[in-house]
Amino acid sequence: METIESFRTSGGTCCRQIIYSVDDKGILTTCKFIHGCSGNQQGLARLCIGRKIDEIIESLKGIPCKGNTSCPDQLSRALESYKKKKADEAAAAAAEATA
What we know:
Elements: E1 3-8, E2 17-22, E3 28-34, H1 38-48, H2 53-60, H3 71-98
Helix pairs in contact: 2-3
């Protein structure tokens, strides 16, 4: 099942928000950056859509632009946050099932 997620960037980038979705196989299916350099953000989204989120995180994490982050780095942080949320949900469901 695919869900639409929203991530507010931490500042230090032109982009203020990333709206994206990931399918149940861990593939990024949509990605839209809010504010910032339109051409770069469209290019980044097109390169990432259809790829596994772990590959995207590995490729983009830590890329600097203004200061110590960038739009690509913020996408990697959004996807890491998504993975943590899904892991926490799975752990809670498992704990509930054994209770």
